[in-house]
Automatic annotation (TrEMBL):
Cited Pfam families: Thioredoxin
CDD domains: TRX_family
The organism of origin for this protein: Leucobacter weissii
InterPro entries (UniProt xref): Thioredoxin-like_sf, Thioredoxin_domain
Domain Thioredoxin: 58-138
Highest taxon above the source species: Bacteria
Name the UniProt record assigns to this protein: Thioredoxin family protein
Amino acid sequence: MTPIAALGLVLALLAVAAVVGWLLARRGPRVRALDAGDGGEGIDPHEFGAEEFGLTGTVVQFSTVYCTRCPATRRTISQLVEHRPGVDFVHVDVTDQPDLASKYRLTQTPTVLILDGAGVARTRLSGTIDRATLTRELDTTIGGTR
């Protein structure tokens, strides 16, 4: 094998590995626990068009009209929150609110923030978010069903 052919083969293998890695990373939700260093101040509920947040916690979903996964995520969150007293759900359509999208560094929708009772963001989820992941993160962040 010539050096040029070997180099071409190595580059092709690297390209395939990069594509496979990218596809695997995009497949599941990205979950990130937030701490005080990530902006531990409480969020103003009026910023999202809400009068107040839940006493125990609040789930905030950011979506756009172009998001095909957002309606299913919204239904799932609504169902989960329904069985959690003191937990509210706020849906925010950022299609025409680029300032909010920029402030919260939204690079994809749906993006979900789970806030504690003080309105401090404790967990951030992005991408295709399944019911099991949402349930686990709600339980971890603001406690199980009561």
